[in-house]
Each structure stands twice: as structure tokens, then as C-alpha cells.
Amino acid sequence: MKKVEALVRRESNVMRLALAKWDPFKPLCLIRRQRQPHSLSLNKATMNAPPPQVAQVAPVEADAGGRYAFNPTLKWDPQVEAYLSQAYGGPHFWRISSALTRPSCYSSLRVNTLKSSTPHVNAKLLNLLSQQQQESSFISHDPALPDVLYVSGTGPHHVPYHHHPAHPLKEVIVSRKCAEAVLRGAQIYVPGVMACSAHVEKGDKVAVSVAIEKPTETGGWTLGITRGTVLHGIPSDVRYEDRHGLYIGEGVASMSRTGIFRAKEGIAVEMTNRVYRLPSFNDVLEGEIFLQNLPSIVTARVLDPQPGERILDMCAAPGGKTTAIAILMKDKGEVIALDRSHNKVMDILKLADEMEIKCIKAYKLDALKSVNSNMSIPDENEVMLEEQSVIVDEECYDLTNLQKEEKGRYLSKAVMRKRMRQLRNGPGKNNSKGGKVANSKGFAPNSFDHVLLDAPCSALGLRPRLFAAEETIESLRRHGTYQRRMFDRAVQLVRPGGVIVYSTCTINPGENEALVRYALDTYEFLTLVPQSPKIGGPGIVGSYRIDETHTEEWLKESEAELVQRFDPVSDTDTIGFFIAKFMVGMKREA
Ligand SMILES: C[S@@+](CC[C@H](N)C(=O)[O-])C[C@H]1O[C@@H](n2cnc3c(N)ncnc32)[C@H](O)[C@@H]1O
Fold it and tell me: Which of 7, 200, 261, 276 has a Cα at 20 to 30 A from 30?
């Protein structure tokens, strides 16, 4: 193991140096899991000479593997645990469960090749990392994914929590959602703080831990802590024992205790030492890069959209895969992006605008209602035109401009009036382009070349995750039922000869392999086809006996290698994710 780590460290140095003077025509090797040293190795000089700002404080006694070492255990609903243990085998399921509590130790950045290039972004990132004094991060690149750069992070680190020997450690307890964000590199914002030591003043060092839900007597879950709770750093403190292994780092309070609980917003604690150190890319290279996990990047490539095609992204917000698809199409053709939430459609439009992508049309629509059998291709414009009218620039138009802008398309008087009203009133509160999103009445059957169904799911593959017991076996089944209904729509909307890609970010085979089984057994004109690139592992073969009368069927041996399953334990160090690709033959009614 040590040998492997040494090799990886040596390789990573080579990659960093190589990228400093990157020749784009000499591709570099793929970064898979960059196993970092598991604890921060302090050299003698560091240990003997405490940094000046902490001269008055001493580290808490080293407790490797003890209270302060980050070592959470996910709690699962017992039936879900039994189900997943059968699917993966008990030991592997627990390895997955443990991997889910940690973030991936690198960030993948997708370059917007419409606005920039990978070498150009690489140069900017090197600059940025050196400005952020993150020279220990390195950038790498995979020739199979030419528009992607990986920036490494490290962890878990041993954090020496500082306190004055005469006083207990000052502490802050944060909510689970806040802690998951902090593990991914965020700061602690005011609403995320649940409890805080008495007498915390601005500038004080505080140890940060997380409150995880506990079971109640009635079978539910409770946080068992109210916002504003005072901590004394003693065993009688609320949740004192429960915080064992749940410390996520150390920070400096940006406000006093009173300020933290009075303020409505703002940073409460600036993290200074974290158990995981991931470079932050907030608000940098906006429009040029998109921070996206590797399996999502792969999904858009597996769909293989071509310039000029008509693509449907059925559940598109916030638009990560939509924009990846549009860029692969060189912004030529049409990408229809749907989401049922108004605000989320706004997010898609904002992202497309930031990335200067023109071929995306986003609509608020329940994907379950996306098939409009009364429509024939390409009549759908008739429906959309009116609603598109709300997406206009802020400039002051007159009617002639409006007509010019539409370049000969028919505009009804009602639509004209609506546009003029909107132009007079200015943009709405949500969006500089009018504040409203277009609705759609659906699309004609067989009207898309490719359909992506990145389905809403149990999200049991997302990392880091500190609690999983909210999903029950029944709720997992409900996800599966919903996904099958959505898949039926995808089948109706894609043209014969087209492609459907189905993906989820869950490790639940009931939403993955069982969906593929349903698809193949229901629609004999669908064929499961190989994927490129292929980075994930095979799918799960077999079945699960739910009760006397029901068995959940997964894949057959011959199908396992055709899907991609990203396992958080594997060397790719990704979230848990699943991708299946179907070719559509001549359709017959199911
Ligand atoms: C997994 S997320 C999609 C992520 C997105 N594809 C991306 O890569 O950025 C699922 C999305 O489906 C949306 N959604 C859920 N049910 C829907 C429905 N019936 N119709 C349309 N969108 C739906 C949710 O609002 C959510 O934004």
C-alpha cells in the first residue's frame, strides 16, 4: 500500500510539473483516485515551532482514532440495509457506506470549449492555485475526456484543535447540510450554526462538529438540539457523546456568539483547517468552466449528441448536463431542457446565458406531461411561441424591433401586447431576461433524436452524506415507480433509430438495474448498447425477493457490462452513479 501511495505521489508531482508547461498535443495520463497521505505529516521544525498566532494555545492531546478524528458512520433504515447488503454483499456495502461519508478527493472541471480551451483554463487555474497558496493541489487531465481538468484535494487530515490549557475548547455545532457543504469546501454561514460555546468572540478559534439526527421513541428522527444552544465543552453538554468522530475542522469565528444567532446571513465561521482540503472555485472563471462530477460529464458524452440534432433533457435543472450536451453539439441544433420547477428553469437559463450557449430552450413542464399526441412535428413552435415571448432582452424595443427580432415568425396581437407590456415594465425579479420562464404544452411523439432522462432519484450516491436513514424500502420503491413512468414518456418522445440515456445518482439497484429490466421487458424494440467512454464498472446481476409474491429483477449476465455503475469505493473516487444507454428500433405499442 505504501508503495502505491509513494508511486501516486511521485506521479502526481510529474503531472503537476508537466501541466505547468502543458503541451496540448501531448496528452497526459488519467487521474484516477489520487490516494493522499491519510494524515498531515508534520516535520520536526513545524512541531517544535508553533506558528506565532497560536503561541498562547496548545493543541488538544492527539487522539488518533478518538473523539476528534473524523470517523462518521452512516445510519440506514434496517430494511434498506438488508436490501443493499444483499445487492453488494455485506462487507462491500459497508465500504460504500463509509466512502459516502467522505467527499471525493478531487474536483472535476468541465471546460466550456465554446468560450475557452482546456490549455487556456489550465494556465488560469495554475495561476489561481498559486494565488490561493494551494501549491499542493495539482491539475491533471485525461485524453479520453479532452474538455475536463481534475484538481486534486487531500484528506482526511488530522486537525490539531487548539485551546488554552486552562479553558475548554471553544466549539460550534453545525447542521448536517452545512457540514456536508463544509466538507466540500464551503465556509460556515449563519443559518448553518446550531450551537456555540458561551463567550465566543469574533476572531476566536473554534472546533467545528456536526449534529446528526437521532432516533426518537416513536420511530422518527430528531436533531435533539435547538438553534442557539450554549455549549460549555463539558460532558454534560447536549450531544457531547454523539459528537465523537464528527469533528470536521477548525475555524475562526467571524462574529461573536450573539452576532451569529442574531444575524440573518453572512459567514459565521471561516474555516482555517479542514479534515478534507478541496480547492475552491466559487465565482472563478465564470462561464468558462463548470464544476461537475465525473459521472455527469460522462453521461453527456455517452448520449453522443451531434451538431444539428434535436435533443430532449427531461429533468434538466440546474443544467449541468444540458450545457455539456449543447457544447458537444457546438451550439448547433436544439436542446430542449425541461424541469417542473420554475426557479430551477431560471437556473438553467442563467447558466446557459453565462456560458453563452444559444441552442438551449428551457421550459417549465412536468416531464410526465411532456407527450402531446395532438401535435405533429414541428408544430410545437405554435405552442411555445407565446411563452417564448417573455424571454427578451432588457433593451428598449419598439414594435418594429420586436417584429425584426422574430424574423418572420408569426406573432399574434396578444403576444405582441404581452411583449410590449413586459418591455415597458422591465425585467422581473428573478431574471434579467424577463423573470419568467416559458411553459410548454408538450412535444410530439417521436420528435427527438436523443432523450436524456437524468431521473429524480433517492440520491443515495451523493457524497459526502452524513445521514441516510430517511429513505425506507417503501420510499425507494416509490422512486422506482416514478422513474418507470418517466421512462415511458422518454420512449414515446424519441424517434425510431434514436437513443435514450437513463442515469441516476443513487446506489439503489431498484432505481438502476431494475429500471433497465423494466425497459427491456416492456419495450422489445429497445436494445441496451455499449457506452463510450466507459469509466464505471459493471451493473448488478440477479434479483431480490421482496416478499412471497414479489421479486425485483436486476440484470442478466450478458447485460452487466453494457451499463456503467460508478462505485464510490472504486479508484475513480466518484459519487455513486448509474448510466444505461438504449437504442430505439422500430416501435410497437408496449
Ligand atoms: C437529478 S436532478 C437533474 C440534474 C440535471 N440533469 C443536471 O445534470 O444538472 C433531477 C431534476 O428533476 C426535476 N424533476 C423532478 N420531477 C420532475 C418532473 N416530473 N418533470 C420535470 N422535472 C422533474 C427536479 O426538479 C430536479 O431538478
Answer: 276
